[in-house]
Fold Phosphatidylglycerol lysyltransferase.
Amino acid sequence: MFLTWDVRRVKGMRAMTAKAWKGTVGISMLAVFVWLALRFWETREIADAFRSLLALPAMIALMTAAYACSFLLKAAAWRIYAQGKEPIHKHLPPLGYSLFVNHLLPIKVGDLVRSGLAAKLERRSWDEALHTVGVMRMMDISVLLAFGACGLAVWGIPWEPDNGWRIVAVSAAALLLLIVGIGFAAKRGRAFAARHWSLLRSLLTIRAGAAWLLTACSWILEGAVPFGVLYAMQDHVAPGQAVWVNSMTVGGQVFHVTPGGIGTYETTMSASLAAIGVDASTAITAAVVSHAYKFLFAFAAGFLSWAAMPVPLQEGIRWLSRRRTEKGERAE
């Protein structure tokens, strides 16, 4: 009993430390955005950028179609990995809810709502749904890291290859230890670990490879947003650069401390655009306009998701208040 309490206390302290570090970085990035805004914010330039974009309805349609298709590909990848039985379009509302919640709350908990809906949709346990959502998030992060590394190499932005390889090696070793540990626990007959072991083994399949490929394509399509905004501002960038900028920006949202990552988004995108030669004033303007567009898209996606798959408020709050249920428990 005392041992269990000590383990829980250690885990709790580690979680608090991780949250403290994440919050510190996020607040620091928010402070940088405030500094950038005070120095480079030009209200007239931002207003002109909005007007320029609104004057190009075809570009807005292209951006919206590409962004929407990126979520369609994410839904397809999720269905493939999770071996879902429902059609792809039914996997879209959970993604829409997740996007909406992440733009509504100062903490990134949209995946909990996505997990709750996944459990109901496919009639699975909370653990299973949470695992598949977690794996898809891992695929997202791995693709963003890959795109980020490729951009650093292609455009010659200074970085330390030796340190990069160390990070890759440590991450690979940690993942290997995790898989081995879960496998060992599964052989011991622990039901929870056994379920996750069987799910993790599915990563070593053609099905998982297809899900990864679709995920990568989805992030390529999302690059249409910064590309379209900069095009409207007559400050063109190459499509590959737009994908890289978007990947770096979304990757920075790990330090989400405000609704929709306000501040961290603009800081990361401004820095990424500056790295490829865009001047500071244009960079922060493009970041603000791009983020405003994504906010509008997120709220529209949330409304459409609610219309397609209504969720009572109390049920959504219950999903947000827990991480996992008892073994085998299924969503109501």
